[in-house]
Amino acid sequence: MWITAVSQVRCSRICSILVGVLATGLSLLPVAGHAQGVSVAAASSLRFAMPELIQRFESQQGVEVRTTYGASGNFQRQIEQGAPFEVFLSADDERARALEDKGLTESEGKTYALGRLAWLQRDGQPLPPEDAPLEAVRQAVERYEADGVKARIALANPLHAPYGVAAQQVLEHADLWQRSRPLQVMGENVAQAAQFSLSAEAAGGLVAYSLVVASPEQDKQGYRLIPSDWHSPLVQRMVLVKGASEDARAFFEFMSSPEAAELLSRYGFSTPNPSEE
């Protein structure tokens, strides 16, 4: 009996300790909502604009935003496979609408910005004329065809990246797509293409204007804007993924606000017309 009583006392003490540890542990776990934050999949064209947008939202809402950057086509596939993103900021309209059509979004999305394409090259090289922004591509192609010298032309992969699609359309417009194929080096996304554009092996590249105007490499680069009618409009659309939290909804609404539009305009984006939303 005495042994049994001692055992019961010990068990009681151990159980009390375990309950205390469990309670402490539970108090340290993140609470649903604000503490968990918002998970955002953002097109690489937003890499320089997003930090300021996030800072503004977090200061107003007290909600953390966790952002992953990449190619819109890859994000579309990942969300279709169940990736835990709540907001998808695509670099085009097509991939966001594809998720809407498959019933993977909370509601119809919105156009949050219009993008531009630019020719980007290292400083120290003559810039192409404003009315012939692809002249450096043409010269690189002619030199390759004449003596085999390869000055690389960078662009994002059209299979994954909307800015890569636009770059292909621009080169096709100038009858340079096929001729430049041996010189092309493709980034997985447009941010990687911008890095390739400034490499020693490259003549330059076709990248998002938003990655040019806010680049920390301003003193090491030159650029020319590409006429917007040389490619399909870069209509950048966002959607709320199915099951998104209230915090994610708040971020979605912030990205729809005039405040966000004004911030985006500083990074080379323009504001969509209501008809384009």
Automatic annotation (TrEMBL):
Classification via Gene3D superfamilies: Periplasmic binding protein-like II (3.40.190.10)
Keywords assigned: Metal-binding, Molybdenum, Signal
Molecular function terms from GO: metal ion binding; molybdate ion binding
Gene transcribed to yield this protein: modA
Record's protein name: Molybdate ABC transporter substrate-binding protein
CDD domains: PBP2_AvModA
Any one Gene Ontology BP term: molybdate ion transport
The organism of origin for this protein: Halomonas binhaiensis
UniProt-annotated binding residues for molybdate: S45, S72, V190
